[in-house]
Amino acid sequence: MKRITIYDVAKEADVSLATVSRVINGSEVVREDTRIKVQEAIEKLGYKPNAIAQGLALQKTTTIALIVPETSFFMTGQIINGLIDVAKIYKYNISLHTATEGITEMTEVIDNVIKSRADGVVIFNDKLSKVELATLTRYQIPIVVIGNKISDETIGSVYIDYEKLAYDLAGKYLDKGIDDIALVEDRRNPSFIRQLLRGMNRAFEERGKTFDQFIEIPKEYRSSYLYLQKYFVNHKHDLVVTYRDSQAMAVLNTASEHNIAVPKDMEVICILDSKFNSMARPQISAYKIPDYDLGAVAMRVMTKMLHKDEEVVDKEIELSYIYTARKSTK
After folding, report:
1. pTM for the full model?
2. pLDDT of residue 164
3. What letters, b where the CB count within 10 A reaches 16 and e where it falls short, cover 163-174?
4. Given this model, what pLDDT does residue 67 score?
5. Where would you tag: which of 115, 157, 266, 284 has the fewest CB atoms within 10 A of its CB?
6. 209-219 as b/e, with b when 16 or more CB fall inside 10 Å?
7. Structural domains in the chain, sorted by start
C-alpha cells in the first residue's frame, strides 16, 4: 500500500506544500475555504502528518524530553529526581517518554519527541541505535546519554565506567589466586552486561587466562531464579557477580536450596546497590552508583549545550562508585 505524503495532499487540494503545512500546524494565515479544502483532502486520502515535520514547523519550548526504556525502571527514580531538581533551577520542564525494545516503538518515541518541540533529549542508556540517534542529531537537537560514553557535536554523556569496575573487581580476585568467577546474564540490561563482560575479559586476558563463566539465561525461562534453580544442581563458583539486586537474591536463594553456603562456599556481589541488598540474609556486597548525580549532571550538561554562551568543556563526564562490603563476601 502506497504511503500518502504531504505532496499527495497538496496535489489533491490543488494548493502548495507550504499551504498544506500551514493547515497541519494550525496557522491562522490560511483562508477558511482553503483550509476546508486541505482538510477534506487529508480526510479523503487518509493522510497522517509526519510528527517530525509538524514539530519543526512549531516554535521550541523550554522542555527537555527524557527517554527511558521500560526495562530500566530499576534506576530511574533517583535519576529523574536529579534531572528535575536541576531543571527547576534553570526553568526547564521534563517530559517522560518510555520505550520498549522494538524498532517501531522507538521510532514512534522519536516522532513524539520531535512533535513535542523538546529543546533537548536525555536518554537513559544507549537504547537508541546510531541510525535513530542520527535522526535526532539531523534536526540539531542536543542529546545527553546517561549510562554510556558517547559524544559528538550535539551529543554529550554522563556515565559510570562499568568496564573498569568489572576489570578492577576481577583483577582483585585473580591476584588472590581466585579465577572461578561467574557473571550472570541480565536480559533487561544487555548494554551494561556487555561492559562488565569486556572488563572481566580484559582482566583475565592480561593475566594469561580466559573468562568463560558467563551464565546465560535461556529465553524460555521467565526469570533468572527459575534457571538458577537448575544451574546450581551441578555448578558452584568461588564468586558470582550479578547486575541487579533481584538476581543476587536469586543466587542466594537457589544456592541455599542446593546447600551451597554463602560466603563460605561461594561469594556473591551485586553491581547495583539498593536498600534490598542490606535486607537480604546474608546481606549482599554491592556498589553504590550515584544515580541521583547521573540525572543532575546530565541536566547540567544539557543546559550548557543549550546555552551557546556557556562553554561545554567536557561532553563526556565519568562519575565514580563506592564498593560496600557486606556478609555475602569473605
Report:
1. 0.76
2. 97
3. bebbbebbbebb
4. 87
5. 115
6. eebebebebee
7. 6-49 (1.10.260.40), 63-160+291-321 (3.40.50.2300), 162-288 (3.40.50.2300)
